[in-house]
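Researcher: Let's do a round of design. I'm pasting the structure tokens now; please hold your answer until I've finished.
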């Protein structure tokens, strides 16, 4: 996926992603990438077909269709579709969904309330009245797999289905470093202090605009004491007693697998 200037004009083939009411619209054959522009009315807040990225040699555009407009297409949940994709397809669809959320949430200037306009060439919304600019919002979020003497630390978040466990995660606060956020989140959520923090990988998580920053760490001190606001149970798990885990395309799962490998080596 190649993200480029919005007005980049190169004579290459175009394809289109149609979205409506926060869902994708699929063709009769079940495709989410369409060969032609939709020819349908756009949502009030959606100004023009938006270049998402160049992908597989084609320019991919997003079109957001007017809400409640009846179409012969099939609505499909974007997150569900992403779970069925791999690699750069996931990135492309994730970016399209994220851009559509951003446009919808930035129709008005956050400073003076005037109607915003899409900036020329840039991925940004500008206010014609006061000049304030707003860019796609990204929320950095740390996620960390902690290795201890008795396994990998996994927690059950109150929002998870019963039996599902994952590594700990949380948003970076204003003015905070990413590393400090990792230490703080683990201490807050389960009362454990950690050491030997190593950055592993990142993943864009477009629900709606998180940027996941993945770490491995080692247990340093403390007994598990869950905060009961986000995490209601946490424990150390090994390869032979794993609970239900997040899907394999998530960075959470990749960190868990990596931490388990380190356990086997230890
Ligand atoms: Zn303004």
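Researcher: That's everything. Go ahead.
Model: Designed sequence:
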């Amino acid at each position: 996926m190649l993200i480029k200037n919005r007005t980049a004009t190169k004579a290459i083939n175009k394809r289109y992603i149609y979205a409506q009411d926060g869902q994708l619209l699929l063709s009769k054959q079940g495709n989410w990438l369409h060969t032609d522009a939709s020819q349908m009315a756009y949502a009030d807040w959606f100004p023009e077909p938006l270049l998402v990225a160049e992908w597989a040699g084609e320019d991919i555009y997003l079109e957001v269709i007017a809400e409640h407009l009846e179409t012969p297409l099939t609505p499909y949940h974007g997150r569900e579709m992403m779970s069925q994709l791999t690699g750069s397809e996931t990135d492309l669809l994730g970016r399209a969904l994220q851009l559509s959320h951003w446009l919808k949430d930035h129709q008005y200037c956050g400073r003076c309330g005037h109607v915003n306009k899409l900036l020329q060439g840039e991925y940004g919304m500008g206010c014609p009245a006061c000049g304030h600019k707003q860019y796609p919002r990204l929320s950095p979020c740390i996620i960390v797999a902690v290795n201890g003497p008795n396994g990998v630390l996994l927690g059950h978040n109150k929002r998870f289905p019963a039996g599902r466990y994952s590594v700990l995660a949380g948003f970076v606060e204003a003015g905070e470093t990413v590393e400090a956020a990792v230490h703080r989140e683990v201490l807050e959520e389960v009362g454990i202090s950690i050491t030997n923090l190593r950055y592993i990988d990142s993943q864009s998580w477009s629900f709606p605009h998180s940027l996941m920053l993945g770490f491995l760490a080692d247990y340093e001190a403390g007994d598990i004491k869950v905060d009961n606001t986000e995490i209601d149970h946490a424990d150390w798990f090994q390869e032979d007693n794993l609970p239900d885990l997040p899907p394999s395309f998530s960075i959470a799962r990749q960190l868990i697998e990596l931490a388990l490998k380190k356990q086997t080596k230890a």
